[in-house]
Structure formats: structure tokens, C-alpha cells
Write a structure and sequence with these properties.
Strand order of the largest sheet: 1-2
Order of helices and strands: EEHEHHHHEEEH
Number of helices: 6
Shape: elongated
Radius of gyration: 28 Å
Structural class: mainly alpha
Length: 212
């Protein structure tokens, strides 16, 4: 089980937001290694509110507004459609008045709020990706120069390597820093080896070929 804190967005196509983007990596790897695996997400709708506090909220609301419907009370804390979904998953009638709601029902709703389970069927296609995984194994790259350990004169940067980080600017920082290092070191490598390159004359100053 992997825990990913952060904001989560419920959309028309599924889950999005920073937490979903981070979790998508584990989904992709799991489905790659075990095609057809049954994956589920367990969502804590409000992490800062413990189970006991949710139950106490409902109890206080029952004392203050006994004729209020459970659905209406929950919609004070959640978007309407999410509140309806939580009640459906908890198997509690949202039209039940708080005065008639049993402790078991209130606890069922509170438990669902802390453990809202959804099936995971996959991730969006590559063209919808924010960050990609996969690429050249970093063990095959010299981290000081970004040069390949297997092929001299070959340098790597950014997402061509098998490296990715959390959303929030980290991936573009990786791209810029590795790009700067790879570009600088590639220039040094070219200067040090230009006399041996067939692209240069024996003097090592002018490219071979006609001058435009």
C-alpha cells in the first residue's frame, strides 16, 4: 500500500490533482507487472478530521437540528455530488432526519469519509500525461557529467532518462539542471576531441566542406 498526501480533484473522467498524479506512477507500474490486477484507491476525504470528530459533528448537528436531513448536513461539508456518493457508498438514506439517524448509520458515513474506496481501471494515455516515467537507466549515466557510461560522447538530460519527481516544479528543475550539465559537458567533450573528429580539418579549426 502506498500513501500519497495532497489535493485531489474529482473530474468527469476520474481522479486528478497532485495526489492522483503521484499515485498514477504506482498504478502504471502495477498494471505493467500484473496486467489485469484489481487496484483500488482508499481516499480520506478530510484528513484533518478524525473519525471520532466526524461522529461528534453529526451528534451535535442532531441535537441542534433534529429535523434536518442527513444529506443536507453532509452537503455543508462536501460538494453536493460527493456528499450523495458518500451516502450511497455508506448505504445510508440521505433523506433520513438526523433525529432518526442511528449511531451505526452516523458511524458508517464517518467511516466512508475516512475510507472512500474507488476502483482503479488505469491511467490516461501518454498525450494527456503531465510527467512521463521510463527511459535511460540512471545507473548507466555519470551524474557529474550526464554522459553515458556505455557510449563516450553521448549525453542525456530531462525525461529521456528514467527519472521523475512530484509535481510542483521539480521535474522542470531536473530538466533545466541536467540540461545545463549535459550541454556544458558535451561542449567540453567536443572541444577536447575535435582534432580526432572527421568533421574537422587537420588544423582542428574549420569544418570540412565548402564554405557557404
Amino acid at each position: 500500500m502506498t500513501v500519497e498526501p495532497g489535493d485531489l480533484v474529482f473530474t468527469h473522467f476520474g481522479l486528478s490533482g497532485p495526489a492522483a498524479l503521484r499515485a498514477s506512477h504506482y498504478v502504471t507500474v502495477s498494471l505493467r507487472d500484473q496486467p489485469g490486477a484489481l487496484l483500488r484507491a482508499s481516499i480520506d476525504v478530510e484528513p484533518d478530521c478524525p473519525f471520532e470528530q466526524w461522529v461528534e459533528r453529526f451528534r451535535r448537528a442532531r441535537d441542534a437540528h433534529p429535523k434536518r436531513r442527513l444529506r443536507t448536513e453532509l452537503e455543508d461539508h462536501l460538494p453536493e455530488r460527493l456528499a450523495q456518493f458518500v451516502l450511497s457508498e455508506a448505504r445510508v438514506d440521505g433523506d433520513t432526519q438526523l433525529a432518526h439517524a442511528s449511531l451505526a448509520q452516523l458511524e458508517a458515513v464517518a467511516h466512508t469519509l475516512k475510507h472512500l474506496e474507488l476502483p482503479i481501471t488505469g491511467t490516461l494515455p501518454l498525450e494527456k500525461a503531465t510527467v512521463t516515467g521510463g527511459g535511460v537507466n540512471v545507473k548507466e549515466i555519470d551524474p557529474k557529467t550526464m554522459q553515458s557510461k556505455r557510449c563516450a560522447g553521448l549525453f542525456f538530460a530531462g525525461e529521456v532518462m528514467d527519472v521523475h519527481a512530484h509535481t510542483g516544479g521539480y521535474n522542470i528543475t531536473i530538466a533545466f539542471s541536467t540540461g545545463h550539465t549535459a550541454g556544458t559537458e558535451a561542449a567540453f567533450y567536443a572541444l577536447a576531441n575535435r582534432e580526432r573528429s572527421p568533421m574537422y580539418s587537420t588544423q582542428g579549426t574549420d569544418p570540412v566542406g565548402p564554405v557557404p
